[in-house]
Each structure stands twice: as structure tokens, then as C-alpha cells.
Amino acid sequence: MSLKQLNIFVENKQGALVAITDTLASHNVNIRALSIADTEEFGILRLIVNDNDTACKILSDEGFLIKTTEVVGVKIGDAPGKLSKALEVLDDAKINMEYLYAFMARTQKHAYVVLRVADNKAAETALENAGFHMITDADINKL
Fold first, then answer.
1. Fold that domain 3-69 belongs to in CATH
2. Handedness of CA 78, 29, 36, 134 (dihedral sign)
3. Fewer CB in 10 Å around end: N or C, the chain?
4. Three-class SS of residue 80?
5. Which CATH architecture has domain 72-142?
6. Angle separating helix axes 16-26 and 52-61, nearest 10 degrees
């Protein structure tokens, strides 16, 4: 049930990011969520897109280094303390989290969070058992 996240290594220079977003747009690949972490020389762009296969092919063809990672997507209530509750569930289940980022969707009642954890299946089970709903690729395509 986990989501596929694209990790793209990007040189930290003017125009590098627009080259990626323009390439995706020209092939009708829609970015649903993104996060970027940078250092002085390069960055890692993390993307959730509506068409992973096309995105990987066209960006690879353009010379970008891409790695696909399985991540957990969880829908949480959009209210104070809801993220904390989800993180407590993982902590109680002894599941290590490497990073997370949130993204907006076309709803006022929920927020969507992407989690990179040590054990996707265990995280999904713990969160579902606590009443959280997982985000699927089909959900991403509806956004």
C-alpha cells in the first residue's frame, strides 16, 4: 500500500529545478507533493507524482539521477495535535522515522503526510489500527 517517491539528485544551480518541473509538465506529469533538501553543491528533490513510470523515464533520459523509494502516506485530521497523535502511534510501535513532509489536497478537513520510516508495513499497520487512513496511489491520482 506504500507510495512510490521519486528522489532526484539536482545540482544546486540556477535553472536546475525549473528544468525538472518543465520536463515533467511537458509530459503531463503532475506533481502532487514535493520536498527539497539542499547542500552547497546539490539537492535531493523528493516527489510524489501521478505517473511514476513516465517521470522516471523522461528524467532519466534527460540525464537526471533518480532513485525510487517506498514511503507511507497517511491522511490526518487538519487540527492541532493530529500530526502529533500519528507520530505517537509510530513511536509507541517503536518505528523509526527518517523524515516527513506534508502536502495540501482539495479538502479542508484533512492534511496528507508522507513518512519515510524504517518499516513501511509495520507503520501502516500501527497507523491503521489507531484509526488513520493510508493514502494509496489511487488517492494520489484523484488529487
1. VC0802-like (3.30.2130)
2. positive
3. N
4. coil
5. 2-Layer Sandwich (3.30)
6. 130
Q: Which DSSP helix (H) or strand (E) runs through 90?
A: helix 82-92
- pLDDT tens digits for range 73-107: 999 888 899 999 999 999 999 999 999 998 766 66
Q: Record the pTM.
A: 0.80
User: How far apart, in whole angstroms, are the C-alpha atoms of residue 77 and residue 54?
Assistant: 32
Q: What is the pLDDT of residues 15-68, one digit of tens each?
A: 899 999 999 999 999 998 999 987 888 899 999 999 999 999 999 999 999 999
**Residue 138: strand, helix, or coil:** helix
In the DSSP assignment, the letter for residue 131 is: T
Beta pairing partners, 133 = 75
Cβ atoms of 110 and 137 within 8 Å: the answer is no
Angle at 140 between CA 126 and CA 12, to 5 degrees: 95
CB-based contacts of 57, cutoff 8 Å, min separation 6? none
